[in-house]
Amino acid sequence: MKTTFISTQSLQNAPRSNIMRLQQELSKTSQELTTGFRADVGLDYGVRSDASVELRNLMTRNEAIIQNNTAVSSQIATTEVSLKDLRDNAQEFLNSLISLNDGGASPTTLATDGRAKLESMLSTLNVSDGRRFLFGGINSGAAPMEAYENGAQAAVLTAFSTAFGGRSPSDPTTSDITPADMEAFLDGAFAAEFDDPNWGTNWSDASDEVRTSAISPAETVKTSVSANETAMRKLAMAYTMVAEFSNGNLDPQTLNVVVTKAREALGTSINGLITASTTVGATKARITTVNEQMTASIDTLKNKISLFEGVDSAEAKTKSDLLTTQIEMSYSLTSQIMKLSIMNYA
Amino acid sequence: MSLSLAFNTARSSLTATATQINASTRNVGSAGDPTASRKIAVTTTTATGGAYVIQISRASDTALYTRMISATSETARAEAMKGGLDQLENLVGGPTSTTSAAALLGKFTSALSDYRNSPEESSVGTALVTAAKNLTTAVNSAADSINTVRLDADEAISDSVTTINDLLKQFEAQNNAVIRGTYAGADITDALDKRDAILSKLSEEMGVSTVTRPGNDMVIYTDSGATLFETTARAVTFQPKSVYDGQTVGNSVYVDGVAVAGPDATMTLKSGRIAGLAELRDETTVTYQTQLDEMARALVDGFREVDPSGTLPDAQGLFTALNPNDPGISARLKVKAEVDPAQGGSPKLIRDGGINGASYVQNTGGGDSYSTWLDTLSARMSETRSFSPNGGIVTSATLADYSTSSVGWLSGQRQSWTTQVTSQSSLLTYASEALSNATGINLDDEYVYQLQLEKTYQASSKLISVVNSLYDTLLQIR
Fold first, then answer.
1. Are B351 and B317 in contact (CB under 8 A)?
2. Choosing among A40, A53, A305, A343, which should be mutated to test the B contact, i.e. which has the most B CBs within 10 A?
């Protein structure tokens, strides 16, 4: 009984049977060596390989957020410039009104200035970045402000004539309007022109609902200011008041009421504009922070992905060298064993 | 001892040696055949001192052979599973693929948040529709891939059944030869070798166990106990399907009328290629299909439209599919033509609602920057939903998590079956090597043995010549 029998078949096949496995490994290793990434993430990690998709999807999402936030930032920047423009004009006009009290400017000059400022305000509120009208609220598809001549002016004059016996402001007889009557008119019928529904009919097509943006997965912020804000209404009111009613016909006392009311409205408006600027400025700062976080997170994700899917190239090289040596050795052994025959000796 | 007795002894030794040389030569001739076993000429001594060959037997080891057979079956099963899973992952895309349904779902989600933030830009809306179409295409083609893999498995089962029937016929012929030879006292070693070779091929197709009855008659059972061969080959039958869709249920494989694999199996095969293919066709791919269906269902549900006045029932929105509750919805999922600019639709309907008519419009004010409805849709995408337990993965997760879990599940299956293949095939290598070492042929050994037999032959011949000369001397004396 032979206890250590070995068949020729298994002797000759022993070194060869491993070659195929070694070659498969070599092909995998050389792929990893050239790409720097694991040849088969799914096979290496099994159920945990879902991290690969998750990380990639997270990266896609963060990249999209940054892209979107950059676009939103530029909209906000335009909005800020416009708000500053409105505020500067309002301030300038306020200064002119104060100078009227000091007897510096004529009421007619002020009226012309008021009209010009009104036009400038309307055109500022109609600013667009090419894709949307920034002050339109969610109705961003059309310019929010109507031209003054298109209804608003007529409505104001009608209100005036209704209040003061069918006269227009340019009528010389309007000098008989008492300060009390003027104040009642300005606080009543005239102010109503800048409240809903008249504001919506004659002045603005904007929506009260402002545009919002999801600047991060969990954060939605208001990214625009509507032309329907009180600040805008008061501003339009102040300009219109002076543009239409500031003339030499009025009794100086009555004119003073107009100017005082205009100054009050301007003051409220400037405060409102400052608040609006602060709000969008804060949003812009918040977006900058979010973008910094997202950029940092993308870097981390890239790192994680390369840690997860990448291979140590030095290790891969060593492994590939070792495999090559093993394969060569297998070849050499196979040929040695094939040569080994008793025929050569007996 | 008389001279004639010596003469006879030498003569029988000569015959015995010749038979032994013959056996050894046969061994040398079949050294390259892995299924051949070592032939041994069993000699014995006669009462008068001569040697003769009583029979040619072969080296065999039933325990090792059984181990080799079962390792073959296990390897074949694991390989069938691994092959199918590799094919599936190739078709649907692995974890690093940018075109897998999970990756495209990520892109779609980003496109949705882009549109939510720029609702007034129609190009962003169109990009969302494109992302949605890419996603549905990926889901559809993944569903197709599953059907392809199932159909391929079905065809492979059919091929396997044909092979089994063929092998069983060959087995019958060899088994008959063995029985006849046994009763006639003939040399049955070659027939036994051939019968074993057929049996090991059979074990690749399905797991088998055997019982040897008197007269070397072998009976084969499947590893689940159904009779495959007893005296005659039993019929193995299978009706392949020509088309697979999400609702197709494959047919069972019957052995002698008993279902051994497939949906009706009562004596389910534990190993062999058919066991692996049936598991792939009826379980693994079906589970994956369920996962895909659940994703498609979540998409349809997440984008359903609601009547703001609450009168009309909810209706399918951006994503639509017929019979969303039936299996195979992943193959039917598509983007509504109403929102697709390529089909004359408008992406604005996703923003405003109203894909199903004016009653479903949410943006009644018509604002271009209206984003409330898109907000609702985004929120639905990221809410935790419940999924069918038949998917074999998480049952409560967000759609995104579910889709990545599905990728992980497939990779996990692949990994575990690949490991199975590696370990089973090394078991098979060891078993085969052990068997080969126990029953195989060593050429060097045979050569030495032949030299030894040559000497015996020479000695016997010499003896004859000596006895002959003795006779001659004896006859000359007379």
1. no
2. A53
This model of the complex carries an ipTM of 0.86
CB contact under 8 A, B103 and A346: no
Q: Are strands B232-233 and A212-216 parallel, antiparallel or unpaired?
A: unpaired
Which of A273, A199, A224, A65 has its CA nearest to residue B370?
Answer: A224
- Which residues have CB under 8 Å from B475's CB, separation 6+? none
- Interval A244-260: pLDDT, tens: 988 888 888 888 899 89
Residue in chain B closest to A17 (alpha carbons) equals B429
- Give the E-state strand segments of chain A in sequence order: 212-216, 219-222
Q: What dihedral do alpha carbons A262, A268, A274, A276 form, nearest 10°?
A: -110
Q: Residue B225 carries which DSSP code?
A: S
Query: What is the sign of the dihedral through the CA atoms of B219, B223, B226 and B228?
Result: negative
CB A211 within 8 A of CB A140: yes
Q: What is the C-alpha separation between B24 and B202, in angstroms, rounded?
A: 29
In degrees, to the nearest 5, what angle opens at C-alpha A277 toward C-alphas A275 and A283?
105
Please write down the HEC assignment for all residues of A157-213.
HHHHHHHCCCCCCCCHHHHHCCHHHHHHHHHHHHHHCCCCCHHHHHHECCCCCCCEE
- Cβ contact (<8 Å) for A8 and B442? yes
Q: Answer yes or no: are the C-beta atoms of B203 and B227 closer than 8 Å.
A: no
Q: What are the pLDDT digits (tens) for A107-158?
A: 888 899 999 999 999 999 999 988 899 999 999 888 999 999 988 999 999 9
Count, residues in chain A: 346
Percent of chain B with pLDDT over 70: 100
Cβ contact B411–A56 (<8 Å):
no
- The pLDDT tens digits for A175-203 are 888 999 999 999 999 999 999 889 999 99
Beta-carbon separation of A43 and B414 below 8 A: yes
Tell me: the pLDDT tens digits for A145-159? Answer: 999 998 899 999 999
Query: What type of residue is B438?
Result: A
